[in-house]
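Why do we care about 3D structure at all? Because function follows from shape, and shape follows, mostly, from sequence. That is the central idea of this module. The next example makes it concrete: a single protein chain, its amino acid sequence, and then its structure expressed as tokens.
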Amino acid sequence: MQNGEILLVDDDPDLLKLISLRLTSAGYRVRSADSGETALAALAVARPAAVITDLRMPGIDGLQLFAAIHRQHPALPVIILTAHGTIPDAVSATQRGVFGFLTKPFDSQELLQKVAAAVSLSGGESATGQDPAGEWRSGLITRSPRMEDVLRQARLVADSEPAC
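And the structure:
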């Protein structure tokens, strides 16, 4: 897995270019997909540190894409962007395991903070080369994609709020 690689999915080519430029200027490597179907094909080739997807797209929408990703890579962080978000939508998405839910127009700093958190959760480095989560994986070495998923899940559980 390459550190700092983001898969960006949106059917709006202008927004795809804008977000890609912002992420690239922040130091991330970005692969773009113009549909959910294209994104799934890209995931079959290489797994990024995080996925950012639009919610409403023709064909496979953002939540369907999240569900497909979650089945194959349960700990891969997915951030959903939408112009049509409501609080119940955001709550529902996060309860299902979506890492982040941001509404358009989004604040660039908020997006970059969310991406940095997602990348660090994946065991990667942020765009600055720092591991904001510390040295939690320093003694764990693996080349197995399945083990990477297990480690991501363990990190998700460790970072989650305890249910009381």
